[in-house]
């Protein structure tokens, strides 16, 4: 990522990082980028809220001076990160009820359907210590949620495309039991920076039934995606085999043939609206649910998700949109499934969040193709 990087000792004896930003690192951001957005890609082990805390504590310097989150990096700067100045968050990963607002789209005795905001992690895990997750809020609202059993965990494909990690494989040992305890009621997940509709099981029976539907791909999932690139046809199908990128272990990539560790993935993209400058609003229907599926497939088609620090390229976007897209513009729009008790097919739609709608307004009105 950088021209030169080295470990140095922090004031408390904890290793810090010091490197020089290469202009090549900023190509995907259009030549310059806010400091906080760059750090979100450079330090994937930290959430955006933790990065903000680190900056506020003086733990990030640019050319030897404490920097603000809004500082623009243009290349050539010396960036220092002192992890020992990151404020401590002493809190167990074990989820406990926390009084946090929820946007509930539907609820009965078996399920609760929520509209997850961007910036919220679904459940506790590595790198989330001290964060209030969706599970914390759900436990406060519901009182209790079912723990997934071994048979549910075996359904490893029952995960959303935008999860941060793949669903752990089933097991009965203490490590697997501990992992299951961190995600009560969860049958699919969205990445922290993806917004939209999710269903959560309130009973063990509902969890088993919903997990089976996600595994068997009998449910309906459709996303709205803002893409930094044109889509010349009305619809396109992208099929590939996905696995971790050997060169970037936090990312995934496509292969056109089967192979060890690769999983088949299918996404159907439909053009919803084309904007000046080659920006496109598309809907994406999932026929499988692989990690980062939409984000990888959109990049494969030359129209990466706007604001995606891992897979994106916003260099062709109007400057105003680049600055407004502080996270990946990916929204879980519609979710349909068979009710685990009544057997009736039901579908829910989550409205676009304010930041996503704001960018669409900018693209539709104030920004011209010459920008």
Average pLDDT: 83
Number of E-state strands: 17
The CATH architecture term of the largest domain is: 2-Layer Sandwich
Radius of gyration: 21 Å
Distance between the termini: 29 Å
Structural shape: globular
* Percent helix range: 10-25%
Helix/strand class: alpha+beta
Strand content: 25-35%
The H-and-E topology, N to C, reads as: EEEHHEEEEEEHHHEHEEEEEHHEEH
If helices are DSSP runs of H or I spanning 4 or more residues, what is the number of helices? Answer: 9
Number of domains in the coordinates?
A: 3
- Stated plainly, the CATH topology of the largest domain is called Pseudouridine synthase
Descriptive overview:
It is a single chain. This protein has 371 residues and is an alpha+beta fold. The chain has three domains: 82 residues, Roll (Structural Genomics Hypothetical 15.5 Kd Protein In mrcA-pckA Intergenic Region, Chain A); 113 residues, Pseudouridine synthase, CATH 3.30.2350; 123 residues, Pseudouridine synthase, CATH 3.30.2350. It is 20% helix and 28% strand. The protein is built from nine helices and 17 strands. Strands 8, 9, 10, 11, 12, 13, 14, 15, 16 and 17 form a ten-stranded mixed β-sheet that branches. A five-stranded antiparallel β-sheet has the order 1-2-7-4-5. Strands 3-6 form a two-stranded antiparallel ribbon. A hairpin with a 3-residue loop joins strand 8 and strand 9. Helix 1 crosses helix 2. The longest helix is centred in the middle third of the chain and has 13 residues. The relative contact order is 0.13. The C terminus is likely disordered.
């Amino acid at each position: 990522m950088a021209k030169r990087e080295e470990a140095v000792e922090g004031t408390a004896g904890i290793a810090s990082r010091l490197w020089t930003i290469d202009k090549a690192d900023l190509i995907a951001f259009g030549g310059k980028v806010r400091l906080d957005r760059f750090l979100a890609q450079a330090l994937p082990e930290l959430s955006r809220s933790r990065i903000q805390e680190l900056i506020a504590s003086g733990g990030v310097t640019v050319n030897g001076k404490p920097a603000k989150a809004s500082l623009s990096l243009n290349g050539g700067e010396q960036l220092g990160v002192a992890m020992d100045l990151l404020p401590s968050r002493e809190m167990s990963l074990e989820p406990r009820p926390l009084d946090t607002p929820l946007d509930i789209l539907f609820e009965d005795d078996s399920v609760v359907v929520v509209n997850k905001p961007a910036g919220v992690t679904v459940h506790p895990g590595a790198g989330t210590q001290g964060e209030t997750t969706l599970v914390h809020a759900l436990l406060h609202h519901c009182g209790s949620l079912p723990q997934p059993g071994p048979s549910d965990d075996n359904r490893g494909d029952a995960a959303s495309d935008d999860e941060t990690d793949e669903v752990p494989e089933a097991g009965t040992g203490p490590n697997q039991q501990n992992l299951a305890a961190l995600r009560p009621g969860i049958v699919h997940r969205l990445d922290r920076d993806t917004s939209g509709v999710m269903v959560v099981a309130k009973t063990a029976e509902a969890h088993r039934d919903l997990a089976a539907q996600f595994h068997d791909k009998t449910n309906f999932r459709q996303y709205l995606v803002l893409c930094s690139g044109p889509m010349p046809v009305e619809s396109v199908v992208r099929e590939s085999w996905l696995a971790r990128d050997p060169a970037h272990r936090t990312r995934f990539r496509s292969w056109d043939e089967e192979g060890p560790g690769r999983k088949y993935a299918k996404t159907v993209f439909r053009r919803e609206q084309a904007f000046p400058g080659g920006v496109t609003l598309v809907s994406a229907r999932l026929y499988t649910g692989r990690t980062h599926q939409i984000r990888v497939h959109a990049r494969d088609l030359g129209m990466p998700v706007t604001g995606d620090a891992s897979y994106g390229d916003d260099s062709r976007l109007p400057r105003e949109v680049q600055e407004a897209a502080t996270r990946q513009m990916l929204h879980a729009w519609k979710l349909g499934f068979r009710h685990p008790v009544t057997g009736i097919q039901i579908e829910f739609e989550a409205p676009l969040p304010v930041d996503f709608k704001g960018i669409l307004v900018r693209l539709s009105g104030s920004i011209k193709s010459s920008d």
